[in-house]
Amino acid sequence: MKFKQLKHEVSQDTLDAIKKLGFKNMTDIQSEVIPKALTGADIVATAKTGSGKTLAFLIPAVEKIIKIKNKCKGTFCIIISPTRELATQTYDVLQQILSHHEELTSALVIGGESRKAQSCKLSNGVHIVVATPGRLFDHMRSKEFDYGYVNCLVLDEADKIYQYGFEEDLKQIIKRLPKERQTMLFSATQSETTEALIKSVMKDDLYSVNTNSGNEKATVEGLKQGYVICETEYRLSWLYKLLKKMRNFKVMVFFSSCKSVVFHHVFFSQYCTLPVLCIHGKMNQADRTSTINSFYNAEKLALFCTDLAARGLDIPSVDWIVQFDPPSDANEYIHRVGRTARGLGAAGNAVLLLRPEEKDFVKYLTESNVYLDKYEFWDKLSNLQEKLDIAFKDVEVKKLAEEAFEGYIRAFEVKKLKHIFNLLTLDMEAVAKSFGLKSIPDVDIRIGFNKKHRPRKRTAAMLSTNDSTESKKHLKI
Questions:
Q1: Which H or E run contains 185?
Q2: What is the phi/psi pair of residue 129, to 5°?
Q3: In what order do the strands lie in the sheet with 128-131?
Q4: For the CA atoms of 225, 231, 234, 237, what is the dihedral angle to 10 degrees?
C-alpha cells in the first residue's frame, strides 16, 4: 500500500512531508494501523522493531489535531516514551512532519532539560507534547499546563514504560487525562505488562494488530545473527580482537551495567587507542545527546551502551550489534538486535557472546523463535596484560574495573533465567580476570535479594562461612 492512497483521509501537507522523508510505500504495521487510527479507534499494535511504528502513530495524531485545532486552546495529543533518547527521536520525526504544518505547535518534555523553559512553552498551549513519564507528571501537577482537552494519547514502547519504574507516574498521568480520548499503544513485543496496561487504559472495543503473528522468526529477515562461546576469563581479549576487526564498521556493543560501560570505554579508548564512544543512564542529558548525535553521523565507530540504547533508537547504517553481556530475556534480545537491519530491505549483523555455562540461552532463544548460527571462536587472542598493567597504574582506572566487576555481578543477580544465569555457580576468579583484575574484589552479593530469593540468600550465606578454596573461588562475599 502506498502513502498516496491515503489522499482522501490525510492532508496534502502531511503527504508532502512523508514524501520529503523519502517514503512511498507503507510498512505492514503502517498499512494496518493508519487507516484504522484515522477513524479514531483505540489501537494496540505489536510489530518488530524497525518496522515503522513511529509514523504509524504520528500521522493519525497530526491529522486528528488538524481537524480540532480551532475549536479550543490547549494540548490535544500526548506521546509518552520510556527514555529521553526515544522521546527526542520521535520529536525529531514529528518536527519534519510539522514543518509542513506551520499552524501546529509541539514541545519536547524530558528530564535533563530546563523545567522552566518547558513550563513556559506548555503554558502557551502547544498542540502535541512528546514526553517521558516522570517529567510529564511533574508538569501535570503545575497550573501552567492545560491538558484538559487531550483527546489522543500514544504510549510508545509501552512495556518498557512500566519496566523502567514509571508505573506509578503513568497511573497518575492517565488518571488526570480526559476519559473520552483515543489511545494508541505500541510495542515490539507482547508481555504481561502490556496486557495489564491495555486493560487499564484502553476501551473494550479496541483494534488489535500484531504483524509478528504468523511469522516464524521473531527478528527481521535482513538480520544475520549468531553466537560465540568464550571462556569467562578471555572475554576482554575477545572484545579487543573484535573491535580491531571491526574498525571500519559501525558497531553497538551492549553491556549489562553502567559501570561496565564506563570501564571498558576508558580502557579501550585511552589504553588501546580504539575509536569508541559510550552512553549510559548515569550520564547527563547533554552528554547523552551529544554522544547519540556523534554516533548517528559517523560512518565507522563503536558505541558502548547499556539497554538504554536498546529501545526505539533509529540510527542509520549500524553494521553490527555485539551483545558482550547476554540480555535478560528474548524480548530484550530482540530490541537490541533491532538497532540494525532497520527498514525495508535493510541488512545487518549481530553476535552474542556467551560463557560455556550460558549455552542453554541459545536453546531458550530458539523456543522464542529467535534462531542463531554458531560462530567459531578465534584461535589466537591478544594478551592484554601489558596494557592492563599500564592502565591499572592509575588507581582510578583500577577502581573502575572493580566497580565494573560489581556491576556485572549485580546485573547477573537479578536475571530471571536462574537455570542459565546461576550466580551461585559463577566462577568469581574467572569473572575478575575478565575485567583485568588479578584478585576478586570484595562484593557482598547478598545485598539486593528480595523475599522470593531468600532460599538462595541462605545458600550464599552458608557458602560464605565455608573456608574451602573451591567455595571461595565460586562465591566471594
A1: strand 182-187
A2: -115, 125
A3: 106-109, 128-131, 77-80, 152-155, 182-187, 43-46, 207-210
A4: -10
- The helix or strand, by DSSP H or E, that contains position 285, with its residue range, turns out to be helix 285-297
For helices 53-68 and 12-21, give the axis angle rounded to 10 degrees.
Answer: 160
Give the SS3 label for residue 237.
Answer: helix
Contact 323, 4 (CB under 8 A): no
Select from 78, 418, 54, 435 the least CA-distant residue to 257. 435
Side chain identity at residue 217, one-letter code: K
With CA atoms as reference, report the closest residue to 370 among 335, 325, 318, 422.
335
Residue 440 DSSP code:
-
CA angle 157, 162, 168 (to 5 degrees): 135
- All cell numbers assigned to 289: 545527546
Distances, alpha carbon 460 to alpha carbons 1, 2, 403, 448, in Å: 58, 60, 21, 12
Q: Contacts by 386-390 with C-beta closer than 8 Å and gap 24+?
A: 387/267, 387/271, 387/272, 388/267, 388/271, 388/436, 390/271
Looking at the DSSP assignment, which residues form a beta bridge with residue 207?
A: 43
CA distances from residue 246 to 229, 231, 267 in whole angstroms, order as listed: 19, 21, 17
pLDDT tens-digit series, residues 71-106: 677 899 999 999 898 999 999 999 999 999 999 999
How high is the pLDDT of residue 394?
97
Task: Write the pLDDT tens digit of every residue in 317-337.
Answer: 999 999 999 999 998 898 899
3-class DSSP state for residue 125? Answer: coil
Whole-number Cα distances in Å, 31 to 23, 37, 173, 301, 310: 13, 10, 30, 35, 25
Query: Which residues make Cβ contacts (< 8 Å) with residue 140, sequence separation at least 6?
Result: 147, 172, 173, 176
- State the cell numbers at 432: 575478575
Q: Are 96 and 17 in contact (CB under 8 A)?
A: yes
In DSSP terms, 182 is beta-bridged to 152
Pairwise CA distance, residues 437 & 415, whole Å: 24
Count of CB atoms situated within 10 Å of the CB of 448: 12
The three cell numbers of residue 390 are 599500564
Distance CA 278, CA 295 (A): 10
Res. 341 pLDDT band, cuts 50 70 90 = confident
Cell 547499556 -> residue: 306
